[in-house]
Amino acid sequence: MARIIGGIASTHVPAIGKAIAEKKHNDPYWRPFFKGFDYVHYWLAREKPDVAVIFYNDHGLNFFLDKLPTFAVGAASEYRNEDEGWGIPVARSVPGDPDLSWHLINALVADEFDITMCQDMLIDHAVTIPMTLMWPGERWPVKIVPISINTVQHPLPSLARCLRLGCSVGRALETYARDLRVLVVATGGLSHQLDGKRAGFINKDFDQLCLDKIVNDPEALTRYSTHDWVELAGAQGVEFLNWMAMRGALTGRVTQVHRNYHIPISNTAAATIVLENASTAARHAA
Ligand code: DHB
Ligand code: FE
User: Fold this and answer.
1) 103, 192, 258, 284: which one is catalytic?
2) What is the pLDDT of residue 95?
3) Which among 55, 71, 120, 230 is least surrounded, fewest beta carbons within 10 Å?
4) pLDDT tens across 29-42, in order?
5) Ligand 2: distance of its center to the CA of 188 in Å?
6) 3 state DSSP class of 72
7) Rounded to 5 degrees, what are φ and ψ at 264?
């Protein structure tokens, strides 16, 4: 049976890709951010996931404003990246797990989520930057199932809807017959706004509230509307929808084992968390 070992959430700012390419890990600007991944590396080396289900938002590489699904699930055997114009290296391709993808797609549709199924899907910096941060080595040791959530073109799905999407994915993972160790990933956030009068907006207090609530009380966050969220977290702070879905997919008792928060990275309040799912936490306590 598949087992959900835990969740990782990470910011996906493209400038991180440039800093990695230029080996700036120890520069004063970057060090507090990259140091936040030391524990992530230790945890991943210990937990050895086989597959990562990644909730993220596409920024115009695969979907554009002409056609933008609310929820889209990748069902490809390989996912390619392309130049998005950020001046960062094009990332290597990532292997997919089509059998798991179709299992999740079947379960989501049975749960009345009208998702878009993508047998061909480019992945943008929102997947490749967190992958590079989590596994900085020569190869990526997991297969992925990318699940894209629209955080770009309003109306966006609600926080509650994204939490439920994650719950549906979590339930489906638990009924998957293959013996896989599954990591659930969310990318994006926390507060940031890239354009308009409030460009550069960051809200540290609200970010702290989100970081606290996402662990033990994600339901509490569902009382905010999308428009509240834009006001409180900035226009692109709505990427937190991906975090809600990740949290929903964690089925057991959840423990936060790592948190790093650093402002700013580019225009963004950068945050990294590692959450363990009950059975993993219990095993290490034993
Ligand atoms: C930045 C943040 C993002 O989430 C993104 O997708 C692109 C850029 C930034 O802060 O520069
Ligand atoms: Fe983004």
Assistant:
1) 192
2) 98
3) 120
4) 999 999 999 999 99
5) 5
6) strand
7) -95, 160
Distance CA 203, CA 21 (A): 29
For strands 116-118 and 71-74, give the pairing: parallel
10 Å Cβ neighbour count for 120?
A: 11
Residue 52's DSSP bridge partners are 144, 183
Please indicate whether residue 125 is annotated as part of the active site. Answer: yes
DSSP state of 76: -
Do β-strands 268-277 and 3-10 pair in parallel, antiparallel, or remain unpaired? antiparallel
| pTM of structure | 0.97
CB-CB contact of 192 with 12 (8 Å):
no
Q: What are the distances in angstroms from CA 253 to CA 64, 217, 246, 279?
A: 37, 11, 14, 8
Radius of gyration of the chain (CA): 17
Beta bridge partners of 186: 9, 55
**Ligand 1: distance of its center to the CA of 141 in Å?**
26
The pLDDT-based confidence of 227 (bands split at 50, 70, 90) is very high
Give the position of tokens 């509650």.
160
Q: Which residues contact 36 (CB under 8 A, 6 or more apart)?
A: 258, 260, 262, 270, 272
Q: What is the DSSP string of 174-186?
A: HT--S--EEEEEE
